[in-house]
Specification:
α2 crosses α4. A hairpin with a 5-residue loop joins β1 and β2. The protein has one domain. The protein has four helices and six strands.
């Protein structure tokens, strides 16, 4: 993995860790905590319709970064056996936004996701 890719995965992993206490980004870009794991997806689901919806919502999609993850949960009391698979989730980071989105829901309703991002921008001080 290149140094640039590693920096990118570290940055995007921080979007996950700010929402889940006790989780950290490993050297390989995998985000892990006491009950689960977020593994970066190498072959992401295309999000072309989200990018178009973002433009229609007044956002510049080029100012945002996207990383998809496969998310699993495992109870340590069950020997670390995977109990739940949450499917693909996506970290989105922009100049005044950092959030998590379900890939299936974004693909189904890209305009809803774009409006949610636009309405969640942190105010400029």
């Amino acid at each position: 993995m290149t140094a640039e890719k590693m920096r990118f995965l570290q940055e995007m992993g921080q979007v996950v860790t700010r929402n889940f206490s006790g989780y950290s980004v490993g050297a390989n870009g995998v985000v892990e905590g006491g009950f689960g794991k977020w593994e970066p997806v190498e072959d992401p689901t295309p999000m072309d319709e989200l990018l178009l919806a973002m433009r229609l919502s007044g956002l510049d999609p080029g100012a945002f970064k996207f990383q998809q993850y496969e998310v699993t949960a495992a109870n340590p009391l069950h020997g670390g056996k995977v109990d739940l698979k949450f499917g693909r989730q996506m970290a989105v980071k922009g100049p005044r936004y950092a959030g998590l989105h379900n890939v299936v829901l974004v693909a189904r309703s890209p305009f809803v996701a774009a409006v949610e991002i636009a309405n969640s921008l942190e105010p400029v001080e």
